[in-house]
């Protein structure tokens, strides 16, 4: 493999428009929005499986490695653009093209499509499961279908409408509203966790089994889902010399929030912790409003998370032209997959282990080594190699562990 600077690098950066450069505060806010997603809702159940101490160690380990690999992508792009004379590299896919040619770009594009679709499958599972939980354990409501299936298909026509909107600018007000609702809802969840833990004081486990270790790593990797956005975020930062520090601070704040959310959820319910933490709450008005708030957030986030998928697919199949029927077909495919997956947390671990680990750890370290191999010392070489090996081990073992959980749930 060598450098490939004979082809134009013109892939548009997903989710970002040609906006003015961002101040440090806006850069921090964009990092927060890009990373925080639905994966946090499965972290308390992951702590139940791994034990709270092991869960905390894994969470901060994954956060550190994710930050480190994000910076490897930034360093690699800077090297290619400044020292090796490459044209502007806008995205992860462009970096794959520059370092490994078409196969690199194809690999990144494929994994971004799979990971983004995986996130959206998780959203639909959460929405349908949560709404079904709100109406209670009723039997089949219509045509022999249970409430979860009916709610999922009830969302389908509205998602077709939202995903038909070609411009992210028109979705921005809904996105801002959804983020405000999300922060408020998760804050209420954490307060409720504290109150329940003080009342129940369930028995807790600090260390789980070794098999649970790989499961928990997959969920943690899924939770830090913004690696594909780091290059566009750095490109639009006004103070690029401060970007590493801002990213580090953002990852630290997010890690503390994740650890607090996960630990409080497990401390409140112990072995009764459900795959989606909100399923543990009762049927009161406050609980219902919190669940609806989280559903609203994910409902309006769905088309934003699918946008990188549309850009990749339309670029490859439709010459970057808007294609309504293709978008609707992708929404249908995501909905069908959501029907087949019974457990939210198991699915988080599967996507995190099989795809997100490769995107977050393996490819950044490989690209960095490819560009810097002629000048790096043995310690850096060992570091890149260790990250690749770590990622591949987690990918294999975590995927196998998650598949066993999903198959057991279907049995």
From TrEMBL:
It is a multi-pass membrane protein. GO terms for cellular component: vacuolar membrane. Residues 22-402 form the Amino acid transporter transmembrane domain. The keyword Translocase does not apply. It is found in: Membrane. InterPro entries: AA_transpt_TM. This is Amino acid transporter transmembrane domain-containing protein. It comes from Canavalia gladiata.
